[in-house]
Write a sequence for this structure.
């Protein structure tokens, strides 16, 4: 599994294999393109799957994960591609992508060595089951491949996001100390997945504020980041390590 700090956005990348249908291609060279706005880590892009039977489509299926108030959430699907092999000049790897039979790319994706490509939907899709199919064009001499796929489910929320200065400060703290917790997305909302070791105040019609952070036993070292001073609503900061207890009370 790869995540922060390998992934700057702490996306959680989990290997996905289907040995009966897919085979793996990999490279040891770095696979990172300056054009890739998604900044997928090289370690993730360095492997890809392709159908075992080269004349078959590459099929990927999954069931949506129901949410408490949303049994059938919408999904954004972001697929990442890169050619990992140096191909003979006559070889072509070109394919279309469809989700539950609906074409996503009108122009066939053609992969080049060292290049990266991204295909995604622009509006969330809602289905009981998702079937992605990648099929080679008639011109293609090689089967489709895929290196990585991001799945985002849409969570409706009617409450306000965390105070933006609190967000910037906690993101700076997370970066400074390489905090390895569930610190991604908004710190205080949704309440059920608020950042671990953090307490927020929730007042109706006001943005949530961070009032306490517990970074005890988190392997911190170095000086205390000045970003803590930007948490204007912070009341408690716990930074205990073995033996010593330090509690800062504002
Ligand atoms: C997805 O694929 C499965 C297996 O091929 C098939 O039974 C199912 O009907 C497909 N579902 C959709 C929504 O296309
Ligand atoms: C396939 O090749 C033909 C002839 O070179 C070309 O006209 C056509 O546009 C190609 N099709 C695709 C999908 O690239
Ligand atoms: C802070 O977290 C540590 C480690 O999980 C825990 O032992 C400690 O009780 C927490 N302190 C407070 C004040 O919540």
């Amino acid at each position: 599994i790869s995540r922060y700090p390998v992934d700057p956005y702490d996306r959680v990348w989990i290997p996905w294999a289907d040995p009966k249908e897919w085979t793996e291609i990999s490279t040891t060279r770095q696979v990172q393109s300056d054009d890739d706005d998604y900044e997928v880590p090289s370690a993730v892009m360095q492997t890809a799957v392709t159908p075992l039977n080269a004349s078959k489509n590459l099929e990927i299926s999954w069931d949506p994960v129901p949410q408490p108030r949303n049994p059938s959430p919408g999904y954004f699907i972001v697929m990442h591609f890169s050619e990992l092999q140096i191909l003979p000049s006559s070889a072509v790897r070109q394919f279309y992508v469809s989700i539950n039979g609906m074409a996503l790319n009108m122009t066939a994706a053609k992969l080049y060595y060292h290049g990266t490509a991204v295909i995604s939907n622009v509006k969330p899709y809602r289905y009981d089951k998702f079937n992605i199919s990648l099929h080679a064009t008639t011109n293609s001499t090689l089967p489709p491949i895929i290196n990585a796929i991001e799945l985002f489910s849409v969570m409706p929320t009617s409450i306000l996001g965390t105070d933006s200065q609190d967000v910037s400060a906690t993101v700076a703290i997370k970066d400074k100390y390489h905090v390895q917790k569930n610190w991604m997305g908004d710190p205080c909302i949704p309440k059920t997945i608020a950042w671990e070791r953090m307490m927020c105040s929730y007042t109706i019609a006001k943005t949530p504020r961070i009032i306490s952070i517990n970074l005890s036993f988190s392997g911190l070292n170095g000086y205390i980041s000045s970003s803590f001073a930007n948490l204007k609503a912070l009341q408690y900061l716990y930074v205990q390590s073995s033996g010593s207890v330090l509690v800062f009370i504002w």
About this structure: The CA atoms of residues 217 and 242 lie 7 Å apart. The pocket of 2-acetamido-2-deoxy-beta-D-glucopyranose (ligand 3) is lined by residues 214, 216-217, 238 (CB under 6 Å).
